[in-house]
Amino acid sequence: MGSFTVSRGEWEGLINPETASNQTRNNFQALATPPAYRKHLDSTLGDPLQPVSVVIVNYNAGALLLECVRTALSQAEQVIVIDNDSSDSSMDDLARQFPGEERLVMHLVGKNLGFAAACNIGTGLATQAFLLFLNPDCILGPGSLNRLLEVLQSDPGIGMVGGLLTNLDGSEQGGGRRLVPTPWRSFVRAFGLTRLNQRWPGLFQDFHLHEQALSDSPVQVEAISGALILTSRVAIDDVGPWDEAYFLHCEDLDWCMRFRQHGWKVVFVPDAPVTHHRGHCSQHRPIFVAWHKHRGMMRFYRKFFRHQYPGALMWLVALGVWLRFLGLAFYFTLRSVVRKLQSPGDDKGV
Question: Could you point out which of 93, 187, 200, 333 has its C-alpha 20 to 30 Å from the C-alpha of 50?
Answer without folding.
Answer: 93
